[in-house]
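User: My collaborator sent over this chain with a note saying "see what the structure looks like." That's all I know about it. Can you take a look?
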Amino acid sequence: MRMRKKKNLASRMEACGALLVRDPAAEKGRWRARRPGAARLRLELGCGKGRFTAETAAAHRSDLYVAVERVPDAMVIAMERCRALGLDNVFFIDGDAAALDQYFAPGEVDLIYINFCDPWPSVKHSRRRLTHEGFLRGYRHVLREGGQIHFKTDNRALFEWSLFQFPKAGFALSEVTRNLHEHGVQGVMTDYEEKFHALGTPINRCVGTMGALPDVPLEDGLQTRLPGWEVRPVTGDDVEAVASLFQADPEYFAIEGPQPDADSVQKDMVNLPPRCAMEQKHYLALWRDGALQAVLDLVEGYPRERTLFVGLFFLAPGLRRQGMGREIVDAALQAAGDAGMDSVRLACLMGNPAGHGFWRAMGFGDLREGARLMGEESAPVWIMERLV
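Assistant: Without extra context I'll predict from the sequence alone. Here is the result:
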């Protein structure tokens, strides 16, 4: 439901200005200075009109409470509620849940509330759900070890789906209920929650406690995230097919160096960075509809223990600019996280500006310029990296 525009919004926001943090990034790592001695920092994502915000902050005055809301017309009501109660332990951010690591330092948050978030029912929009594994892994960047996420929703489909997301992001589930108020009202309600409870709609709730990330073998994670593909290591029987795939793009290898053939593919299959062992390497063929369409050369634990190095990503020319490259790289990034990696690094040839643009669009940043040895030649590259 679209929030109606509030009259005199600017003046009402200004009247509550003491509660609004206009530059949350400047508070990163220093939030408790706003409430010295605060026992815990509680963070609410999407506070709406703020009934839950105000009543919870009032019930826990020794804690610091921060609410994030993207809709000013809703947030102003929440701020007015808190001001009316004379609360001095609650502050508001006009921001996005995807940017939490810009606002909070690692381990700075003790507890996160997610109440009745947008269910984004379309499968193609599932990554926008605040309980998607990607968001949950993002919360790990600001939650302390053992910190918790308290999640409530009236949407049963979203709840059941979310129960599978929490463990994948390293959160142990507890207090799981599909009818929270079955025997009487439990805890503080939101306005939305009270309305639907009155209509007899069951409220679902669970608690996720942050623990260690589960490690999933890289190849298993990649296959799981690419259900339309067959992902398997390149074998001797695949060498000719790989060489033929590479030869379909002679312009790329004009930049890379000598044109590929079966011998060069066999060398690539065993080529390793310094101080690495073969068990760290994954030279993978990606098949679709019975045809070899992509090759990934990945090395775990290089150049750091928890970094995945991409030695090569090659996609059949006929499949480019269709979103498939992004699909594969997204899957590789998530599989890296599943396997316990915290970052992905690569070397992009400087003679390949299109490739550089692609990796930048995928969230990689330039660390420095470098050089990669190719036989007796040295090719300049951009060293690029991103966190997962």
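A starting point for your reply to your collaborator: The two ends are 33 Å apart (CA to CA).
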